[in-house]
Specification:
Blueprint: E1 15-19, E2 24-28, H1 39-45, E3 50-54, H2 72-85, E4 90-95, H3 97-108, E5 113-119, H4 126-137, H5 141-144, H6 148-152, E6 157-158, H7 161-169, H8 179-189, E7 190-192, E8 198-200, H9 204-213, H10 219-224, E9 232-237, H11 245-254, E10 259-263, H12 270-273, H13 275-289
Parallel strand pairs: 2-3, 2-4, 4-5, 5-9, 9-10
Antiparallel strand pairs: 1-3, 6-8, 7-8
Helix pairs in contact: 1-13, 2-3, 7-8
Length: about 290
């Protein structure tokens, strides 16, 4: 299943070369969180891994959000990126949307991956998938999704990032970010504007489109999980509102080989809230697995 034409895929998938030395590791970012948002987290990997971060479709210049109907093409983009880079299998880490993208790519082409790590992936139970499919068929997703309207009305330009930092520092969602992580987030979501100030690099229209097109077509993941043989670790925030403990139990029931662990005192944004703890869990898993 694929709602976006392959013709929309560029000859070369854009990415960021983070650097480091060691085994090749590919990172896939969350919706609304370009790779630059994760720089403090990435720094922890560089002594051990050679890290690249793919830029997913919302960050491609000139591509309209309406070209995406579901998340399946994103997995194809990740596999196309691997094809353009090398024939070697890689370690892949994905957060949120990037976690689902990584998992679906591994289900399609397991030989391309040495191991995968999914950080609070947007993987919802079958009952939620069927409910959301009904909501979408009735044309109610924009009305009932809790994040779409909020996303489309968010502030898009800032005069000064220091003032933006002070405002974001007061928001509940960022209370567990360190100062460095919050500043990296603001630098990652913005770029200088020609006339001065800063603007969002990840458009609200694309962010909302990702919310609109997600979940409803994800039963293929649940059908494929029992046959997944790629070593897999799922880390989720103990207080996450996205990947819940019950989902973890269902994953283990479908495939007992998948390791699922909760990271205490954090939510959906665990690699930004607890970068050191999350890195250590990933690194330990990879040392034990590879």
């Amino acid at each position: 299943m694929s709602g976006s034409p392959l013709a929309e895929r560029p000859e070369r998938i854009p990415y960021e070369q983070i650097g480091g030395s060691g085994p090749s590791l590919l990172f896939a970012h969350a919706n609304g969180y370009p790779p630059g948002c994760y720089l403090p987290f990435f720094e922890l990997f560089k002594p051990h891994y050679s890290l690249k971060a793919i830029r997913q479709r919302p960050l491609w210049p000139g591509l309209a959000p309406e070209t995406l109907e579901d998340w399946h093409p994103l997995a194809g983009d990740l596999l196309a990126f691997l094809d353009q880079q090398s024939d070697q299998a890689v370690i892949a880490v994905g957060h949120s949307l990037g976690g689902v993208t990584t998992l679906r790519a591994a289900l399609r082409s397991p030989d391309r991956f040495r191991a995968i790590v999914l950080l609070d992936p947007v993987l919802l139970p079958p009952a939620v998938i069927f409910t959301w499919r009904l909501i979408r068929s009735l044309g109610l997703s924009s009305t009932l999704h809790p994040l779409i309207s909020v996303t489309l009305t968010r502030r898009r330009e800032f005069d000064d990032l220091e003032q933006a930092y002070k405002g974001y520092r007061r928001r509940d969602i960022f209370q567990r970010f360190s100062d460095d992580s919050l500043r990296a987030y603001l630098a990652g979501i913005t770029a200088p504007l020609p006339g001065g100030g800063y603007g969002l690099v990840y458009s609200p229209e694309w962010e909302a489109r990702i919310y609109h097109t997600g979940i409803w077509s994800d039963m293929d993941i649940w059908r494929g999980l029992p046959s997944l043989e790629v070593p897999t670790l799922i880390l989720h925030g103990a207080e996450s509102d996205t990947f819940r403990a019950g989902t973890g139990r269902l994953v283990r029931k479908k495939n007992p080989a998948v390791r699922v662990e909760a990271v205490p005192q954090c939510g959906h944004l665990l690699p930004l809230e607890r970068p050191v703890e999350v890195f250590e869990l990933i690194h330990q898993f990879l040392q034990e697995t590879l």
